[in-house]
Write a structure and sequence with these properties.
Blueprint (H helix, E strand, L loop, with lengths): L2 H24 L6 H22 L2 E10 L2 E7 L2 H5 L3 H13 L1 H6 L1 E7 L3 E3 L13 H10 L7 E5 L19 E5 L8 E9 L2 E3 L3 E11 L4 E9 L2 E10 L5 E9 L4 E10 L11 E9 L3 E7 L4 H11 L4 E6 L12 E5 L6 H10 L2 E6 L5 H7 L3 E16 L19 E10 L3 E9 L2 E13 L2 E7 L4 H11 L3 H15 L7 E4 L3 E3 L5 E6 L12 E7 L5 E5 L1 E3 L2 E5 L6 E9 L4 E10 L12 H11 L9 H10 L6 E10 L3 H21 L4
Parallel strand pairs: 2-3, 2-5, 5-6, 8-14, 15-16, 15-17, 17-18, 18-23, 25-32
Antiparallel strand pairs: 1-33, 3-4, 7-9, 9-12, 10-11, 10-13, 13-14, 19-20, 19-21, 21-22, 22-23, 24-26, 26-30, 27-28, 27-31, 29-30, 31-32
Protein name: VWA domain-containing protein
Keywords: Membrane, Transmembrane, Transmembrane helix
Length: 675
């Protein structure tokens, strides 16, 4: 308490006492015990009021010992059970968790991980995937700006996420304790299989298979691909202790439209401990046509390459880059992308109108807007010669197709001449423009459907920076490419609008997330957020039917079908208010990624330990690890001075007491006829 506060308290005592003395003793006509009592009550009331105004605070300080954090993380994936290390992992976890010496020195934290990372609850070793990379990301959030050791009890086998060897900070030591057999046994494995989801009728599609071998002698094996009971292709491969991996590429015929399910198998005359990883199922949807897109420009620009790569990321699309004066016929194209058109595009515009081809016009600083005003009747452009930068604002109410916000607000700006764009038709804006964070409400990316012809307009160049920016953030072009693909998909289709639109894959791998999205539109083709969508999923073999409800999410409805066993399923989505329905099928392929391992990956765990300054340990070395942690001088308790401030008496108690004293005074005076 400060000297000023003490002085105020003394003055409050004197003032409260003086006022009470003056009213009830000095001015009193007679001296009585009642006056003394009333003076005392008034003194307490006034002093309490002064205390409430001054609010004196007592400051206390104490020393606290803050222990360094120590994280124990255990692998809860099913590969631990597959490697018969379940009990060993549990025993190790209990040993470190209950160690008195470790608890005395550290603030012990316990976590588990498989597909997700969480605080330890129940260890069942049934996790469908192992996301080792999630440990590093989540521990940073739990222990910000701290230097702490981490013990990871695991087999080191990873099935999801980035390479964990490079995920952890060098400032925090990782001590892996490897569980599971580390002795190499004879094993052939299909490590990875790359194939496109789509193929085209009468073409051949490539399949790339990565094979790995574990063993101490030379080995010959055969790789085959089958469709049902028919062998489609086969190839021989050889391995040795020095040559433990092979990559083969095969071309398979796409001779039938529809979903084709294949099985790749590697086999040998040698007996293996684990044959589950010898095969992988995959599926390819064979399509009977390919969408051809003409990308027309009279200039060179990075946008053109970005559009081509993004569109062709969907193997159903083929982009041909042509000059404006090279197209004599549009019979071979479904969509025309017109990049920064000018007066030399006159003949092409006439061909597009005659052929009734859907188009996408992209404008920029090289666009002739006077020419556009004369050759289309959807927009009126009054543009200056001054270039301006426009950032994007996503419009969540857009309902022409299912679109997601990929972080448009944070993407680099597009460039277009400054001016006014006036709409002359009914348009649907997916993106509107902002200038220096001021929303202009003007269209940036917009869509028009007029007399059965669909058109798209992007008012700005340099969207190649969007593709680059999404890759920097996500280490993938997928978000941008999918965004462009949905635009092309909208333009490539002239189908009449449907009230119920359902998006789903034709096949899934068991263990991965099975999510479907749906949109329901009213008669005005406006998204109906009050729709009640349900889905009935039927296993074609067991005839078991499961029912789910779709949940509202932004501008779509979503349902998660996790937990279904491998097999073929038919499903029907219904909107209960209107009885609109959609039916189709999908297949869940039997592939448990956690069963592919026959050994713990001690080598990779050792690399992780070395990179972070830790050390790899085995279960029989757990005491050595405890001693190392206890003796490590990098982890010391910190003595902190904690200062706390608290009022002498809480304000609500003061108010209560003041009210009590004043009420008592009033009743006493009333009772004695002094009022």
């Amino acid at each position: 308490m400060t000297a000023a506060t003490i002085l105020l308290l003394i003055l409050s005592l004197l003032l409260a006492g003086g006022l009470s003395f003056f009213q009830y003793i000095y001015k009193a006509k007679s001296k009585s015990k009642l006056n003394l009592f009333l003076a005392f009550i008034r003194f307490l009331s006034l002093f309490g009021l002064f205390l409430l105004l001054i609010n004196p605070v007592i400051t206390t300080s104490k020393l606290e010992i803050e222990k360094p954090a120590f994280a124990i993380v255990i692998d809860n994936s099913s590969s631990i059970a597959v490697l018969n290390a379940r009990q060993t992992a549990k025993d190790l976890f209990s040993f470190f968790k209950e160690s008195k010496e470790l608890n005395d020195k550290f603030e012990v934290q316990t976590y588990q991980f498989d597909k997700e990372f969480s605080a330890t609850t129940t260890l069942d070793f049934k996790g469908s995937q192992t996301n080792f990379d999630g440990i590093a990301k989540n521990l940073k959030n739990y222990n910000r700006n701290q230097i702490y050791p981490t013990v990871v009890i695991t087999d080191g086998n990873q099935t999801a996420g980035s390479d964990y060897t490079y995920s952890f900070s060098d400032t925090n030591k990782i001590f892996p304790v490897v569980v599971g057999d580390t002795i190499k046994v004879f094993d052939l494995k299909i490590a990875q299989l790359n194939v496109n989801k789509y193929a085209f009728l009468k073409n051949k599609f490539p399949v790339e298979i990565f094979l790995s071998y574990s063993g101490d002698k030379n080995c010959s094996a055969e790789v085959s691909i089958s469709n049902g009971k028919s062998i489609i292709a086969k190839q021989s491969v050889s391995f040795s202790p020095e040559n433990t991996s092979q990559t083969i590429s095969l071309l398979l015929p796409a001779d039938r439209v529809g979903l084709m399910v294949y099985k790749a198998t590697i086999s040998s005359i040698e007996r293996e401990k684990n044959t589950y990883n010898n095969s992988k199922n995959f599926a390819v949807e064979v399509l009977d046509q390919k969408t051809n897109i003409a990308l027309v420009s009279s200039i060179s620009h990075p946008d053109i390459a970005a559009f081509k790569r993004a569109i062709e990321s969907n193997k159903q699309r083929k982009v041909t880059i042509v000059k404006h004066n090279d197209i004599k016929s549009l019979a071979d194209y479904s969509v025309c992308v017109l990049y920064q058109p000018n007066s030399s595009f006159k003949t092409l515009f006439d061909l597009i109108k005659k052929a009734r081809i859907n188009s996408w016009i992209v404008t920029g600083t090289h666009t002739d807007f006077m020419f556009l005003n004369q050759n289309q009747n959807l927009f009126d452009f009054k543009m200056s010669g001054q270039p301006e930068e426009f950032t994007a604002s996503f419009q969540s109410q857009f309902n022409q197709f299912a679109a997601e916000d990929i972080g448009f607000d944070a993407l680099p700006p597009l460039e277009n001449p400054f001016g006014t764009i006036t709409t002359k038709a009914v348009v649907s804006n997916l993106l509107t423009s902002k200038i220096r964070n001021i929303d202009t409400k003007a269209p940036l990316l917009t869509f028009v459907e007029n007399q059965g012809i669909r058109s798209a307009f992007l008012f700005g160049e340099n969207s190649w920076r969007w593709r680059l920016d999404t890759h920097v953030k996500d280490q993938s072009f997928e978000k941008y490419d999918l965004f462009i693909d949905k635009i092309i998909q909208f333009l490539a289709s002239n189908n009449s609008k449907k009230s119920l639109v359902v998006s789903h894959e034709n096949f899934y791998n068991s263990g991965e997330s099975i999510e479907m999205t749906a949109q329901f539109f009213n008669k005005n083709y406006e998204f109906d957020e009050k729709a009640h969508l349900t889905i009935a999923v039927k296993n074609t073999k067991t005839k078991e039917v499961k029912n789910y409800d779709f949940l509202r999410s932004n501008n779509a409805f979503k349902v998660n079908l996790d937990g279904l066993s491998p097999g073929t399923y038919t499903f029907s989505v219904k909107e209960l208010n209107t009885n609109s329905s959609y039916s189709n099928s999908f297949e869940i392929l039997d592939f448990d990624i956690e069963k592919q391992f026959v050994n713990a990956d001690a080598e990779k765990l050792s690399q992780l330990a070395l990179k972070t300054g830790g050390k790899l340990y085995f279960p029989n070395q757990k005491e050595n690890l405890v001693q190392l942690l206890l003796n490590d001088q990098d982890y010391k308790a910190i003595q902190k001075k904690v200062t706390s401030k608290s009022p002498i008496i809480e304000w609500y108690w003061l108010l209560l007491l003041i009210s009590l004293f004043l009420s008592t005074e009033w009743f006493v005076r009333k009772y004695n006829g002094l009022l």
